[in-house]
Amino acid sequence: MSRATITNRLFTALVDDTGDAGGLSQAQARHEPANFLRHAASLSMSKVADGLIDPKLVLSWLLTHLGASTFFVGLLVPIREAGALLPQLFTAPRIQAMAQRKWAWAAGCIGQGAAAAGIVLAALTLTGSTAGAVICALLAVLAVSRSVCSVSYSDVLGKTVGQSRRGAATGVATSLGAGAVVIFALVLITGLVDRPTLVLVAIALAAALWIGAGAFFSTLWEERAPGQSETPTLGQLGILRSDRQLRRFILARGLLTATALAPPYIVLLGAQAGQGAFDRLGALVLASSVASFLSSWIWGRLADRSSRKVLMFSGMAGAVALLAAVGLDLAGASGTIWALPLVLFVLMLAYHGVRQGRVIYLVDMAPADNRATYTAVSNTVIGIVLLGSGVFGALASLAGPHITLIIFAAMAVASIVVTRGLDEITD
User: Fold this and answer.
1) DSSP string computed for 117-155
2) Reduced to 3 states, what is the DSSP secondary structure of residue 426?
3) pTM of the model
4) Residue 426 Cα distances to 73, 164, 230, 350, 359, angstroms
5) What 3 state SS string does 295-348 have?
6) Is 67 strand, coil or helix?
7) Each residue of 403-422: pLDDT tens digit?
8) Please, which residues have CB within 8 angstroms of residue 306's CB and are 6 or more apart in sequence?
9) Which of 15, 91, 363, 399 could pair covalently with 403 via S-S, beta carbons 3.0-4.6 A apart?
10) Is 349 helix (H, G, I), strand (E, B) or coil?
C-alpha cells in the first residue's frame, strides 16, 4: 500500500467531510490530506510538551522544590500568559510579510524547545533565588517563542486545511496530546518514580518534542504567497474600529477567560475543606488532561459545524461548574473525594471548548490575507485582560473564593449573551 493511499485513508477516517476544500487554492487542496496529518502530528507534540511543562503546576512545583521564593513562583503564570500574547502585535507584521509562514511556527517551536532544555540545565545546577530568576527568564524566552507560534498558526492552518476540517485537525491533536499527559499525571500521582527526577525528565522530553514538532512542521506543503508590506505596529489596532464582529468576539473571549482563571480558587476550596488527597500537581494535571482527551476531538468536530455554538456551550458548562463549586462547598461536600474533582473536570471541559472554539472562529472570521493581524490584535487585548486579572485576583481574594467564583460564573453567563450576537460563519 502506497504512502499516498495510507495518508488518504487516515485523512478520510479523521474528518466528517472530504469534499470541497473550502478556502484553499487548487494546488493547496491537492496537498491537504498530507498537510492535515502534519498539522495533527506537529500540534500533538506541541500539546504534549505544553502539558509536561505547565507553569501553573509543574514549574511552580519545581521552583518550590529548588527553594525559590514565592515571589518567583507567583511570576510564572503572568510571564507565560503575557509573554505569549502581548508581543504578537509586534511580531505579526513581520510574519505577515513572509511568503511562507510555516517557518515562523517551526522557529517558534524550536525556540520553546531550547528554552525548556535551558530550564532543565538550570534546575540541575542552581538552587534558591538564582534558580528562580534564571528559570523565570527562560520561561520568558519560551513564552515569546510561543507567541510567534500563536500568531502564525491560524494563518498557516487557514492556508493549508479546508474550512470544514480545521476543527478536526486541532481537535485530534489536542486529544492525542492530552492522552500522553494523562499517563504523566498518573505516574505523578502513583509516586512510582522519584518526583524531582520525573519532573526533570518530563521537561527534557518537552524540549525534544518541541524541536521535533518544529522540524516536522517545516515539511508542510505551503504555497508561496507574495509577502505583504508590514503594517505599523499600532496601526493594526485600527481593525478594532472597523470590524464590529472582531470587537464582539474579543469581548466574548475576554469573558470566557473565567474558565482559565477559576481553577486555583476551586483548589483553595479543597484546601480549606482539608482535602489532602487533592494533590495540586497530580490531580490537577490529571483532571485537565483527561478533560482535554475526552472533549477536544468532539469540540473540534462541533467547531467545524459552528464554532460560535461551541463558545456558547462552553460558557454554559463553565457557569454550571463554577456555581456547582460554590453550592457543593456551602453544602459541606467539598471535603468528599468526588465533589471538587468532578467540578474541576467539567470546568476543564469548558476551558478546552473555549480554546477550540475561539481558534476556529477567528480563523474562519478573519480575511484570508489578514489572519495574522486579527490573531495578534485579539491576543494582545486578551493578554492585557489576563495581566489585569492578577490585580483582580488580589482584590477578589479579600472577598473569599465564594464571591470570586460567583463573579467568574457571571462572566461565563454574560459570554453566552455576547456570543449569541456573533455572526454564524460555518455551516
Assistant:
1) HHHHHHHHH--HHHHHHHHHHHHHHHHHHHHHHHHHHHH
2) coil
3) 0.75
4) 42, 8, 30, 20, 13
5) HHHHHHHHHHHHHHHHHHHHHHHHHHHHHHHHHHHHCCCCCCCCHHHHHHHHHH
6) coil
7) 889 989 999 999 999 999 99
8) 424, 426, 427
9) 399
10) helix
d(CA 208, CA 216): 12
The beta strands (E) that lie in 29-92 are given as none
CA distances to 53, 148, 330, 343 from 399, in Å:
31, 38, 15, 21
Distance of CA 89 to the CA centre of its chain: 18
- Interatomic CA distance for residues 277 and 264, integer angstroms: 16
Which residues have CB under 8 Å from 131's CB, separation 6+? 63, 66, 67, 68, 122, 123
* Cell 486541532, residue located: 170
pLDDT tens by residue, 335-377: 776 788 788 899 989 998 998 899 889 888 888 777 778 888 8
Closest of 269, 256, 230, 276 to residue 372, by C-alpha: 230
182 near 283, Cβ under 8 Å? Answer: no
